[in-house]
Design brief:
By secondary structure, the protein is an alpha+beta fold. Helices cover 25% and strands 26% of the residues.
């Protein structure tokens, strides 16, 4: 395990420990029956980072097999603030500008890793680019991402498969899962790369 990944895991463990301690303290103060606490999953973290008015599903255990799904919150969300909160990458501006703005501040990677931000380049289809957070690396050619507003609908898309279709497996060209059709879309998107802490 490289140092960056180890540091990321240590940081997430600390966040989880603080969340569990706060939950336990709140549970003692309430007149309700106490419940057993389990370690927070990435969905739990997503719930804690999202605005309270966004209606997210009940947390699921990390080991469960997840299908791609879309969550409609009570307010419209864009990809940039969602990716910023979920990843901890503190960049501003439209999604397409993140790649250039990350230079000198964050690691810019050509291969995906869990927790990194996938940066879609600006194209005629994505006028401001797009950003998504890598949840899981499934294989050298496939990852799962969480992102918002992929369908220009302000919704949250969870566990979305993204497949590398580049000739040299360099993650420069990808296809994204179409939740409505239940298959990969036909359009090919260009990536700038991945940003990690």
């Amino acid at each position: 395990m490289n140092r960056r990944r180890r540091n990321t895991r240590l940081m997430l463990s600390a966040i989880f420990a603080v969340s569990i301690s706060a939950s336990a303290a709140s549970a003692k103060a309430l007149p309700f029956e106490s419940v057993a606490l389990t370690p927070l999953s990435s969905d739990d973290l997503l719930v804690s980072l999202a605005p309270p008015e966004v209606n997210l599903p009940a947390p699921r255990h990390v080991a469960e097999v997840r299908n791609p799904r879309v969550i409609a919150g009570s307010e419209w969300l864009s990809c940039v603030p969602f990716a910023r909160k979920l990843s901890g990458i503190d960049l501003r501006g439209n999604a397409a500008s993140w790649w250039a703005k990350a230079r000198g501040f964050y690691a810019r990677l050509t291969q995906p890793e869990a927790g990194a931000v996938m940066v879609f380049a600006r194209t005629h289809r994505l006028h401001a680019g797009h950003v998504a957070v890598v949840k899981q690396v499934v294989s050298p050619r496939e990852v799962r991402v969480d992102h918002a507003n992929w369908g220009n609908d302000g919704k949250i898309y969870l566990d979305t498969p993204v497949y590398d279709v580049s000739r040299n497996n360099d993650w420069s060209l990808v296809k994204v899962w179409n939740v409505k059709l239940g298959q990969f879309g036909t359009h090919i998107y260009r990536l700038s790369g991945f940003i990690a802490e």
